[in-house]
Each structure stands twice: as structure tokens, then as C-alpha cells.
Design goal:
- With 340 residues, the chain is α/β, with parallel strands linked by helices.
- The protein has two domains: 96 residues, K Homology domain, type 1 (Ribosomal Protein S8, Chain: A, domain 1), CATH 3.30.1370; 232 residues, P-loop containing nucleotide triphosphate hydrolases (Rossmann fold).
- Helices cover 40% and strands 17% of the residues.
- It has twelve helices and twelve strands.
- The strands form three sheets. The chain has a seven-stranded mixed β-sheet. Strands 1-3-2 form a three-stranded antiparallel β-sheet. A two-stranded antiparallel ribbon has the order 4-5.
- A hairpin with a 2-residue loop joins strand 2 and strand 3.
- The chain is elongated.
- The two termini are 41 Å apart.
- Pfam families: PhoH.
- Its main location: cytoplasm.
- It comes from Symbiobacterium thermophilum (strain DSM 24528 / JCM 14929 / IAM 14863 / T).
- It is found in: Cytoplasm.
């Protein structure tokens, strides 16, 4: 049996200690609940008491959290909860590298960063690959992070345009019965993309760049027959494309362009019996150089904790989408020759 041990950790200053401990030491209490230890705060120092192995895990946990502060990041309740979960699962990947990677700064001065190790690896895959498929459940930041990387690439003059597209699955005959011109008819399908860009760029900048044709938000059908050079192109909700639509979209890519395709294969809204292009493309392009497949999981959900539990429950019940897909790599690992 392990011996009882006491370890002390000195935090750099009182401000960092208050941030790390949480309001009324709430972060410390949460850490205590996750491990069989007692944590006693004293000024900018914490004393950790318990069995040797548990104390060692908590010490490593504090080291990971203080490393975030040393890299210029802030430690939030979400970060503490995520770090505790990683520590309990024995995941020792560098947390500070992920949570301090500033992708882009919004017009309000907010820094957009990955919030999980999986999100950091996904962002890295986008940066280094010509075409990246981000596949995972709702709330994992697939589209928002891709847009942040796109805006960063545009600001750095790596691309001249940003093009965002989605399939309007329910358009068909119903589209004609909606009021307004074609743009007004498809706007409801594209609204989530507008909202994300408003949040990153601000509505005035977004509208100005839209008017200049630098940013384009359009339904997937509008991509047919075009060649898109020097562009950062994002296809969202790709699980609702057919294989033919997916091929059409991917072959629009021109010189100097980068493509990100996002989707959730458990939420396919295609008619019964229709194959999903996102399911099909994993088989077709799995071993093509320069193409990455990255799979985010419930561990990367950054919404309410209940969302993770909901996703796990649906997975345990057999998923929630139509169509099958080939065996995928271990959760969170990229696949594709460029990212191996």
C-alpha cells in the first residue's frame, strides 16, 4: 500500500494563485473530488496530502495548469475540468501547447485558441495539409476552428479569398415555396456560417469583404463549374452531401488553395438509401498524399458537460445517423499519409 505523502506547490504570484484556485477555491474542491487527496491553500501555495500515487498525479496536474499560465494563458474552470479528466485517464500530452496556441484575435480582442488537445491537433492538421476532413460530433469546434484558421490565413495574405459553403439538404422543391429571391431562400441554411464570421470579424468587416467578393458564403450547388484559386474553402455539414456532390466540390480546388471539410456522420439528413459523400470519401481518399482525416470525439466537446453525456448515450445506443462508415482510427488520431 502506498504511503501517505505531502507535497507543496508554490504558485508564481497571488494573482495566478487566485485564478488557479477558482472563486472560493472551487477549482481546488473539484480537483479533490477527482482524486483521493486533500488540498490546502495557503497564500500562493498549495499543500497536497494523500497516497503517494494520487499525490503524484495531482502534482503533475498542477504543473500542467501552471504551464498554461507561464505561456501567457489564463486558466478557466473549463480548463481545470478538462485537465482533471485527462489526468484521470492517464493522458500526459502537453496541455499548455494546446491551450496557448492563438489562432487569430477577433475584432473585439478575444483570442481564439484550441480548447482541447484534440482541437489543437485538428488545427495543426489544417495548417499542414492541402485538404483536411474534420469529422466529429456537435460542439467540438470543427467549423468554428476551421474558420478561425481561414481568417488567420487571409490576414497573413496566404490566401486571397475565403469561401464557405453548405449543402441545402431540404432545399429541393421546398425552396421554391420560400419567400424572397434565391439568396434569401438559402440564407437560413447558411446562417450558422454568417454567425461564426460575425463573431470573428465583426459585421462591418464581414459585410465589406462580402461586397468586395473576398468572402463568399453560398450553397454547395453554386460551386459547380468553378475553379477556386488562392482560396481557403470550407465545406460544412458535409455528411449531407452525396458522393457526386463531394467529388464535385473537391475538384473545384485550384492553385494556392486550401480545403477543409467538416461534418458529423451520426447526423445524416439525406433521404433513406442515399449514400453520404462524407462516409464514402473516407474510403476513397484515405491513402491520398496531402489529405488528412482528423476525428474529434466527445472528449473535444466544449459545450455544456451534458453534451458529452448525451453523445456517449447515443453512441452506446447505436449512433444516430444513416449509412455506415469504414473502421476509423483510434479517437482523436489523424489519418492520411501526410499526417502519419
Amino acid at each position: 500500500m502506498d504511503e501517505t505523502q505531502e507535497r507543496r506547490i508554490l504558485i508564481a504570484d497571488n494573482d495566478r494563485a487566485r485564478e488557479l484556485f477558482g472563486l472560493n477555491d472551487s477549482h481546488l474542491r473539484f480537483i479533490e473530488e477527482g482524486f483521493d487527496v486533500t488540498i490546502v491553500p495557503r497564500g500562493n501555495e498549495v499543500i497536497i496530502k494523500g497516497q503517494e500515487d494520487e499525490v503524484g498525479r495531482v502534482v503533475r496536474l498542477f504543473n500542467r495548469l501552471t504551464a498554461i499560465q507561464e505561456r501567457g494563458g489564463r486558466v478557466t474552470e473549463r480548463d481545470v475540468r478538462y485537465a482533471v479528466r485527462l489526468a484521470r485517464e492517464g493522458d500526459e500530452k502537453p496541455l499548455a501547447d494546446a491551450l496557448t496556441d492563438v489562432i487569430v484575435t477577433t475584432y473585439r480582442g478575444k483570442q481564439i485558441r484550441p480548447k482541447t488537445i484534440g482541437q489543437k491537433e485538428y488545427v495543426d492538421a489544417i495548417r499542414r495539409s492541402g485538404v483536411t476532413f474534420g469529422i466529429g460530433p456537435a460542439g467540438t469546434g470543427k467549423t468554428y476552428l476551421a474558420m478561425a484558421v481561414a481568417v488567420a490565413a487571409f490576414k497573413a495574405k496566404e490566401v486571397a479569398r475565403i469561401i464557405l459553403t453548405r449543402p441545402a439538404v431540404e432545399a429541393g422543391e421546398k425552396l421554391g415555396f420560400l419567400p424572397g429571391d434565391m439568396q434569401q431562400k438559402v440564407d437560413p441554411y447558411l446562417r450558422p456560417l454568417y454567425d461564426a464570421l460575425f463573431d470573428i470579424m465583426g459585421s462591418e468587416t464581414f459585410e465589406r469583404l462580402m461586397d468586395r467578393g473576398v468572402i463568399e458564403v453560398a450553397p454547395l450547388a453554386f460551386m459547380r463549374g468553378r475553379t477556386l484559386d488562392d482560396s481557403f474553402i470550407i465545406l460544412d455539414e458535409a455528411q449531407n452531401t452525396t458522393p457526386e456532390q463531394m467529388k464535385m466540390f473537391l475538384t473545384r480546388m485550384g492553385f494556392g488553395s486550401k480545403v477543409v471539410v467538416t461534418g458529423d456522420i451520426t447526423q445524416i439528413d439525406l433521404p433513406e438509401g442515399t449514400r453520404s459523400g462524407l462516409v464514402d470519401v473516407q474510403r476513397v481518399l484515405r491513402n491520398v498524399p496531402g489529405i488528412s482525416f482528423y476525428y474529434l470525439t466527445e472528449r473535444d466537446v466544449v459545450r455544456n458537460d451534458l453534451v458529452q453525456l448525451i453523445i456517449k448515450a447515443y453512441e452506446a445506443a447505436g449512433g444516430g445517423g444513416t449509412g455506415s462508415h469504414p473502421p476509423r482510427p483510434r479517437a482523436g488520431r489523424p489519418n492520411g499519409s501526410e499526417t502519419q
